[in-house]
């Protein structure tokens, strides 16, 4: 079953949390360049399913900014497609599907994607899943459409994690679908929770909790909820991030008097210092090749540097502006996202690492904690407007922007989960 691990994780979190919590609201602005016109038909008999699958697919595709949606009504048959008719309506592609309920109670979803220009079938998918996985099935189909029409893997079926804060007395670590739906609680605490980071296989999250009245780094298994203390040294233990191999993390520790970067096994063993400066080194992030990007004030102010995963000489990466923090590298290793303070505003920037060319991606004034989608096409970050903290998503070209808000609590510290097979 496609995305079986994600389905198991979703079900486990739902059971442990006792059901879904309040959902987020998404506001979309801007459109992508060269939008692909797609007609998404209502799936035959989809009203028998818990959620309307075609509506979820449409919302995913619209949110991406890569597609122009064309009204298609309901199509009851996936054969004998009138390609000329759909091309005349302006659609380069057509999505159709059916839903049926099996004797075992599963919902059987069949889908096909047609190319109206070449008058051919591009893809098909047949999935049978329990009712609670209806949204996941729809996201899988949207992922397939995105891949077949853009050549880039879709990230609609991935998950995000973030922290919700209520009046500085109540904190929750939450996991949700990439669209903010299906929100489930992983941890609740009366003390702050910060810096969540997904493991490469998507089954664990590392984070910092203050429940011991000091910052301590934990790793939590999201399936069985078991927790492991990874770093509880003297002083501050902060900024955990997973290595691409998934067997170790980088953390920032002040055990030697000033904060430096260390690596540590996921079980808390084999602690090793990898940065060495007279200043503050923190906020490590692994690139796909295992090298580490990090923030350091060794040049007099916070800038972003790069070093090998086991330490060694560090080379400065950012040179524009006197305050650059929170480096994050895309999955292909080509783009660096970071927060830069300029003219008193903290804003999201992206740099092409080959050319050094940078682009400002946000127009707000208090942005934090960028995190790439696993396909590298979007960046999620925390922002603040009107006294409320919320999450925002922007495409790497800056054209498509989304804001995710909730009715209660401030949401912050996002991390976008990996692809799951």
Automatic annotation (TrEMBL):
It comes from the Bacteria. Residues 1-22 form the signal peptide. Keywords: Cell cycle, Cell division, Periplasm, Signal. Pfam families: DUF5050, PD40, TolB_N. GO terms for biological process: cell division; protein import. The keyword Isomerase does not apply. Part of the Tol-Pal system, which plays a role in outer membrane invagination during cell division and is important for maintaining outer membrane integrity. Belongs to the TolB family. This is Tol-Pal system protein TolB. It comes from Rugamonas rivuli. The gene is tolB.
């Amino acid at each position: 079953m496609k995305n079986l691990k994600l389905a198991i994780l979703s079900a486990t979190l739902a059971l442990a949390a006792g059901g879904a919590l309040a959902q987020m609201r998404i506001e979309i602005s801007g459109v992508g360049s060269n939008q692909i016109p797609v007609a998404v038909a209502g799936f035959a008999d989809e009203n028998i399913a818990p959620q309307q699958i075609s509506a979820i697919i449409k919302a995913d595709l619209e949110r991406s900014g890569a597609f122009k949606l064309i009204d298609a009504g309901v199509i009851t048959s996936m054969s004998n497609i009138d390609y000329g008719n759909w091309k005349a309506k302006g659609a380069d592609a057509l999505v159709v599907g059916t839903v049926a309920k099996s004797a075992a109670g599963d919902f059987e979803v069949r889908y096909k994607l047609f190319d109206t220009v070449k008058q051919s079938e591009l893809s098909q998918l047949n999935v049978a899943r329990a009712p609670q996985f209806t949204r996941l099935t729809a996201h899988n189909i949207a992922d397939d459409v995105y891949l077949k029409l853009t050549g880039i893997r879709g990230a609609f079926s991935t998950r995000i994690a973030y922290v919700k804060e209520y009046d500085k007395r109540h904190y929750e670590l939450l996991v949700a679908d990439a669209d903010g739906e299906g929100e489930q609680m992983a941890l609740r605490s009366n003390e702050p929770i910060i810096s969540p980071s997904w493991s490469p296989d998507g089954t664990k999250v590392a984070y910092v909790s203050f429940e011991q009245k000091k910052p301590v780094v934990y790793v939590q298994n999201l399936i069985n909820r078991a927790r492991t203390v990874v770093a509880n040294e003297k002083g501050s233990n902060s900024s955990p991030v997973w290595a691409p191999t998934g067997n170790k993390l980088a953390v920032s520790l002040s055990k030697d008097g000033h904060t430096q970067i260390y690596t540590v096994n996921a079980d808390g063993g084999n602690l090793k210092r990898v940065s060495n400066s007279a200043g503050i080194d923190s906020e490590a992030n692994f690139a796909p090749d295992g090298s580490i990007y990090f923030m350091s004030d060794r040049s007099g102010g916070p800038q972003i540097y790069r070093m090998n995963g086991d330490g060694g000489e560090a080379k400065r990466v950012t040179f524009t502006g006197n305050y650059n923090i929170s480096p994050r590298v895309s999955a292909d290793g080509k783009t660096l996202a970071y927060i830069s303070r300029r003219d008193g505003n903290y804003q999201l920037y992206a740099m092409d690492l080959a050319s050094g060319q940078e682009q400002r991606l946000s127009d707000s004034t208090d942005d934090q904690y960028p995190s790439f989608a696993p396909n590298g096409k979007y960046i999620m970050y925390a922002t603040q407007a009107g006294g409320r903290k919320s999450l925002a998503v922007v495409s790497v070209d800056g054209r498509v922007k989304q804001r995710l808000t909730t009715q209660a609590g401030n949401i912050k510290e996002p991390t976008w989960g990996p692809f799951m097979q």
